[in-house]
């Protein structure tokens, strides 16, 4: 069964919509919709926007793709010259100076780690890299135990005076995959707004950012049925917000009836199984993605408690029995 939820929009968007209907703000001149798809950061990128002229639309979409490639070049763990690779290579031996952007991301990661009690932890990479989802490889207990000794967000030492990062133990490493795509769609949205785009949708895999509405109606974002690739569990009508979905169906393999997926509990090094998917709506993509990962690892009760600490965030959870659960903010709508 597909569920249609009421419109989710921030207060500022509601005020602007009322002003347009009252004739206090001008309506946009006639134009058209433009879109493009690409593959960056190992995921599908989609952009759809409204512009008065095709040249303006193409320039805006080019700006989005440039931002996606910039994030990939900076934070890919697979590129040896990326800033992330430099951190992982050197921070176990000495403090590594980083860019202002990277330092801010690391500080946000540590804040989410504290909020979640360690359920969100970018140092999980020490165990995450032991899995190969294409080849169906999972670590044995001894290998996993050794890697888990290198996991722990408190071992990521940030120094604001030198804007640097150091690891407490050599062999530690980090992965920003827990919210890099959310950060990317935030950057893309900022570029679009700077170019005067008022209606747009940008997605990077399960992370999306919507600007304005879809010219008189909300953007509609589907929550996939985690056990049917073409099924939709719920539809979210959205304006001016970000949405992130984390699911156990994105990258996984099964062995002896156990599903090993890419969402890892830093405390165990294994895949949590209490829920199948989590969708979070928030003001920005970085927050939405970090919270969707957090809630997935913590499970329904503890995850909703963590979510409640972030003003304006809401969630849709599909548990292991296929039941839908909504945060109080969505229930109130």
Automatic annotation (TrEMBL):
GO molecular function: metal ion binding; transferase activity
Catalytic activity: L-threonyl-[protein] + FAD = FMN-L-threonyl-[protein] + AMP + H(+)
Cofactor section: Mg(2+); Mn(2+)
InterPro entries per UniProt: ApbE, ApbE-like_sf
Record keywords: FAD, Flavoprotein, Magnesium, Metal-binding, Transferase
Pfam families, alphabetized: ApbE
Co-factor: note: Magnesium. Can also use manganese.
Binding residues for Mg(2+): 178
EC number of the protein: 2.7.1.180
Protein family membership: Belongs to the ApbE family.
Name assigned to this protein: FAD:protein FMN transferase
Organism: Rubrivivax albus
């Amino acid at each position: 069964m597909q569920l249609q939820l009421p419109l989710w929009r921030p207060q500022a968007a509601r005020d602007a919509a009322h002003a347009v209907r009252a004739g206090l703000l001008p309506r946009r001149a006639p134009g058209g919709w433009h879109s493009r798809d690409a593959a960056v950061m190992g995921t599908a990128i989609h952009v759809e926007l409204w512009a008065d002229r095709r040249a303006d639309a193409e320039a805006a979409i080019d700006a989005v793709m440039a931002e996606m490639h910039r994030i990939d070049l900076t934070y890919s763990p697979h590129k040896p010259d990326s800033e992330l690779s430099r951190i992982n290579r050197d921070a176990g031996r000495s403090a590594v100076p980083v860019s202002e952007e990277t330092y801010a991301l690391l500080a946000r990661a540590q804040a989410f780690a504290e909020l979640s009690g360690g359920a969100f932890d970018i140092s999980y990479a020490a165990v995450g890299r032991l899995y190969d989802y294409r080849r169906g490889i999972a670590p044995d207990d001894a290998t996993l135990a050794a890697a888990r000794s290198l996991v722990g967000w408190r071992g990521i030492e940030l120094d604001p005076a030198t804007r640097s990062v150091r690891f407490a133990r050599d062999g530690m490493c980090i992965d920003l995959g827990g919210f890099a795509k959310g950060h990317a769609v935030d950057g893309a949205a900022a570029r679009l707004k700077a170019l005067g785009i008022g209606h747009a949708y940008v997605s990077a895999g399960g992370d999306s950012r919507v600007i304005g509405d879809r010219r008189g109606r909300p953007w509609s974002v589907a929550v996939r049925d985690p056990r049917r690739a073409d099924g939709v569990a719920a539809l979210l009508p959205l304006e001016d917000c970000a949405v992130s979905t984390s699911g156990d169906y994105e990258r996984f393999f099964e062995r002896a009836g156990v599903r090993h997926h890419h969402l890892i509990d830093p405390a165990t090094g294994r895949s949590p199984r209490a829920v199948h998917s989590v969708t979070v709506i928030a003001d920005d993509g970085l927050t939405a993605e970090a919270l969707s990962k957090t809630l997935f690892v913590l499970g329904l009760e503890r995850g909703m408690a963590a979510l409640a600490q972030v003003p304006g965030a809401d969630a849709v959870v599909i548990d292991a029995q296929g039941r839908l659960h909504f945060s109080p903010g969505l229930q109130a709508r």
